[in-house]
Structures are given as C-alpha cells and as structure tokens.
Amino acid sequence: MAPTITAAMTDSEDHLTLNHKRRKPLVEKLRRERINSSIEQLKSLLGPEFLKQQPDSKFDKADILEMTVSFLTQQLQQNQQQRSQLNQRKHLEASLDDNLKEAEISLSSTVLTSTDEDTDLRVLWRPWKTPTDESCY
C-alpha cells in the first residue's frame, strides 16, 4: 500500500518552510553581527601590535584575522621556548644538586681518611722525635 499524504501534513510542512524562510535572514544577520563584534574585539585587543606592523593602515577583517593568527603563533612559539628553557634549567639544577651531594660525600670521606693519615704524617714530618715520645702529640 502506498503512503498517503494528507492535507494537514502538507500544510504543516509548508508552514515550517515559510517560517524558516522568514527567520533565515534574521538568523544570518545576527551571525554576521557576532562575527563583526568578535573581529572588533580582536582589533581592540591587538591594536598596539597592529600599529607596530603597519602604523598608518586601515585594516579590513581579513587583515585583522591574519594578524591575529600571526600574533598568536608567535606567542605560542615564545611560550614553547620558555618552557624548553625552564625544563633545561630544572634539569641543570637537578644535575648540579646531584653533583653537590656527591662532592659533599666525597669531601666528608676524604676528611675522615685524612685525619687518620695526619697522625702518620706527623710522625713522618718530625723524624727527630721518636714515635714513643708522648710530647709530640
């Protein structure tokens, strides 16, 4: 059995199409206003940056968008470089801390060893006194 189209269904579809046709220009106008407002906000936020590049130029929307993309790309690159430098610095500081700890351990073990050797050196450097002489210590 073939589907039947009733007059009520046709009328409601026509009504939706007509309503959509009436609203479309209004919706499109609001969308363009949002886009233009956002572009103006970008222009005001990045105004000093724009003036550095071309001080006496009037910018159209495409120029503003291109310069915004360029500015944001530069900021991202600088941010990545700073992160990289920070990571290198942290790695260097950790390495320096490890080296300092190793040096302290080595120095403390050298001091302990050298005090034992100092007793022997005093005997060697004072050959005129006998090791049994109590007054040399």
Automatic annotation (TrEMBL):
Protein source organism: Characodon lateralis
Domain of life: Eukaryota
Classification via SUPFAM superfamilies: HLH, helix-loop-helix DNA-binding domain (SSF47459)
Stretches assigned to the BHLH domain: 19-75
InterPro entries: bHLH_dom (IPR011598), HES_HEY (IPR050370), HLH_DNA-bd_sf (IPR036638)
Pfam families named among the record's database cross-references: HLH
UniProt subcellular location: Nucleus
Keyword field: Nucleus, Repressor, Transcription, Transcription regulation
Protein name as catalogued: BHLH domain-containing protein
